[in-house]
Amino acid sequence: MEKKQDTKEDDEFSESLLQTLEQQTNWDGSPMVKYQGFWYLKIFFRQELASYKHFKAKDSDVILSTLPKAGTTWLKALAFSIVNRGTIYRDIDQNPLLTCNPHKLVPFLVAFKENKPNQLDKPNDPRIFATHVPFKALAYSIRESACKIIYVCRNPLDLFVSARLFLTENKLEKDHAGLLGLDESFDMACEGTHPYGPFWDHMTGYWNAHLENPRKVLFLKYEDMKEDIVFNVKKIADFLGCPFSSEEEERGMVEEISKMCSFQSLKNVDKNGYSIKGLFKNSTFFRKGEVGDWSNYLTPAMAERMKKLMEIKFQGSPGLTFKI
Ligand code: A3P
């Protein structure tokens, strides 16, 4: 009864809130709303609010945070493998990553239903969840408990190209008239008008949280992970308090996990299936997986504009630099 009441109140609250918010459409025509300085896709907004209000983090939880297209799927596979390596690597043929897309193994917090607070409870700790929301929009219990947060950041040029191409493959709006042109989409990205944007506020929010408490927030960069995944797999394990033993290292466990979670291995798994409420085709989460692919789509003038924007937006964040 109380739960129903909660849900009703949440619905009324989000409905009246939605009326007051600035609205825009994304590059593919999907409605977005601006809340506390960040853009959200309207279809997920109620659930994002509900998870902010009701999600109760446990100290043992692991929260994976990214902007869309920054390497969420990869991070899900890595965190899942590292945390569960004691069981899933006992029998290599039984590893769920051989048959399941990582989105099936690690849910988004937005899947949290306001009327079923225990829906995401699993018997085994640690639980792993993913989110795209900015740091300040994480549930209070996530920020204040001892749970760990891993953020993956990706250079904004590749992020833009990856996001735009993803939308050409997955249409959230059935009736939309087609994607905005490249120039208009790029203008919007440079204005910070894209899901969970502005990207610079998203990145600096987690960067500052990492600087304030590096044991709570690990800040990784997609480009560094591409350069040396073995080093980063160890870094994640150390951060989560489950470092690889020398025996595991000698057995090649770190390399095995890196390989199992590589683009080449994951891209063929259940590639005709769909993930995230059936909205997205699994294969579309694996396009090229490279650093610098933006140069095949954007003009030098566009790149220059973005570089200048980054200089301005990240000037107060020394250390927050990108290999592009
Ligand atoms: P590209 O479109 O540049 O190829 P997300 O998982 O956040 O949606 O991000 C998707 C991007 O990460 C895509 O980038 C995709 O190819 C890349 N990606 C997915 N799995 C990867 C992996 N195992 N290693 C490296 N990149 C990966």
UniProtKB/TrEMBL annotation:
One of its GO terms (molecular function) is sulfotransferase activity. Residues 59-317 form the Sulfotransferase domain. The lineage of its organism: Eukaryota, Viridiplantae, Streptophyta, Embryophyta, Tracheophyta. Belongs to the sulfotransferase 1 family. The keyword Transferase applies. This is Sulfotransferase. GO terms for biological process: sulfation. The keyword Transferase applies. Gene3D superfamilies: P-loop containing nucleotide triphosphate hydrolases.
